[in-house]
Amino acid sequence: MKWILPSWCLNRWLHTALLFLSPLLIAALVHSWLTAVVMERRVIRDLDEIHHTFAKGLQAFERINIKSPFATLSFTCSEDDVSQLNSHLLSPVTVRFIQLELDNGVKCSNIGPALNYQIDQRRTLQVAEQSIMIATIIAADDRARSLIFIFPLGPHQLVVLTNGSVTNNLLSTLCHDCYQLQINYRGLKSLERGVDVLSQRRILIEKSYYDEVLDANFILRAGDKQYQKIGLTIAMFLLIMALLLSSIAVIFYWNWFSARVSTDTLIQNGLKRKEFVPYYQVVIDCRTGQVVGQEMLVRWRRLDGVLVHPNQFIPYAEDSGLILPITEHLLEQVYLDLPQLKGWVSVNIIAQHLEAGLLSKWLLSHQDVRVKRISFELTERKPITEFELALAEISAASPLCHGFKLDDFGTGFGGFSYLHQLGINSIKIDKMFIDTIGTEDLKGAVLDAIIAFGHESNMDMVAEGVETQVQVDYLAAKGVYLHQGYFYAEPLPLDKLIHFYNNSPH
Fold this sequence. Notes:
- By secondary structure, the protein is α/β, with parallel strands linked by helices.
- It has 2 domains: 11-227, no CATH class; 267-503, EAL domain (TIM Barrel), CATH 3.20.20.450.
- It has helices at residues 7-63, 79-85, 164-174, 224-272, 314-320, 323-337, 351-355, 358-364, 387-397, 416-422, 431-434, 443-456, 469-477, 494-503, and strands at residues 95-101, 107-109, 119-127, 130-137, 147-153, 156-162, 179-185, 191-194, 205-211, 216-222, 276-285, 290-301, 307-308, 344-349, 374-378, 404-409, 426-429, 460-464, 482-484.
- Strands 11-12-14-15-16-17-18-19 form an 8-stranded mixed beta barrel.
- Strand 15, helix 9 and strand 16 (404-409) form a beta-alpha-beta unit.
- The chain starts with 6 loop residues before the first helix and ends with a helix.
- 28% of the residues are buried.
- The chain crosses the membrane at residues 12-34, 230-256.
- It comes from Shewanella morhuae.
- InterPro entries: Cyclic-di-GMP_PDE-like (IPR050706), EAL_dom (IPR001633), EAL_sf (IPR035919).
- Keywords: Membrane, Transmembrane, Transmembrane helix.
C-alpha cells in the first residue's frame, strides 16, 4: 500500500521550510552590504582614535609654555638638566627622544648620549604664539621617516623626535595587519605607518582627517583583511539572528497552523453534529407593525452547551472556505423551517458563493414553492473578483428565489458599483449609519444620501440595527419603512420566534 501525505501536510512542511530558510537567505544577501557599511564606520571610528592618540601628545607638548618647565635649567647639560628632560610633562608616549642643544654645541638627551640626526625638510609651525620648527629626518623611505619638533629656548633649542612605533602598535591593536596610515604635514615628506602592502582586490576604504592645529592630513586605508575579519563577525551575528528569527517564525506558524487546524476540525465536527443552527431576526413594516420577513443569522451551539459568538468563527469560516458547507447546511434547516415562518427569509452570502455557482445548484435541487421565499444578502466583507461568474449566478438564481439584497450598504468594497453591475435592487442600510440618528455625527449626512439614492433608484430599503423610537420615527419620516433591530426583537431560535409571532399584536 502506497502511503501519500495529504496536501495540507505537505503545504505545512513547505511553509515551515520557507519560513526557516527565508531569514537565512536574507542574511546571506545582506552580508556583503552590511559588512561594507560596518567596515566603513569602523574605519572612521579608528581614524578618529588614531588621530586623537597621535595628536594629543604633540598638541599638549606644543601648547606648553616651553620656558616654564625649564626655568631652573642650568643649560650646562648637567645631571639635573638630564633629569628635567625626563619630566613627564615633556615626554608623552608619542615622544621617542628629547634633546637639549646648547649654543656652544654641547648636547644632552633624556636617554643620555646625544642623537645625531639629519633634517630632510623643514618649515615653521606657529602654535600658541610660539614659532616651532617642524621637520622630517632623512630616511630610506616614508615608512622609516620620523618627525622632529625644534623649540627655541633663547640661544638654545629643544629637539623632540616622535615615536613611530606608538602609531604602529595602535594600528595593530585596532586591527592586526589591516591598516595603512599616511600622515602628510604640509610642506614635508609623508610619513607612513602600518602594513607595507595593503590587499585590496575585493575592497578598499579610505578616510581622511585634517588637523588644523598641526596643519596635517591623516589618511587611513583598510582593505581585504579587515573586510574578512568584520565579515566573519557579521556572518556569525547574522546567522544567530537569522536562526533566532527562523525559530520564532516557525514556532508562531506552527501555533497558528495548529489553531487553524483545530478550528477547522471543530467546525467540521460541528457540521457533522449539526451544531450550526439558524436564528431569525424579524423585519417589521413600521406602518403596520407586521412581520414581513426575517434575516437568518447563524449561531454555533456546541453539544457542550457553549454558544460560540459569530465573530469568533465566521471570519475564519469565510477565509477557509468552510462558510460554503455551513451555508448549505443552514439552507436545509431554513427550508425545513419555512412552513412556520412569516414572509421571506434572507440568508447571508459572500462573493465566493456567487463565483462558485452554488446557490443556483441548491435552488434547482429544491424546486418547491417554498424556496421562492428565500432571498440572499450579499455581504461586502470580501470583494467580488469574478464579476462575470457572479453576474451569471445572480441571473440563474434570481428567478428561483426571492431575489438578492446588498447587505451593509456603504461600508464595504462594492457599494454603488455592485448595484449597477450585478443588477441588485434592494439594499440594507448598515447600523453604523442608523446610529447617527439624533446625533451630530457627520455620517448622518451619508445616511440621508443613501436614503435619497434608494428612493431615486427605486430600491427596496431595509434599515438594520434599529434600537430606539427616535430612529423609527426618523426613518419613517424619510420613507424607510422596513426595520430590523433590537427595538422590535433580537435574533431568536425558531421556537422563540413562533412565540414572538403568537404574542405580536399584529
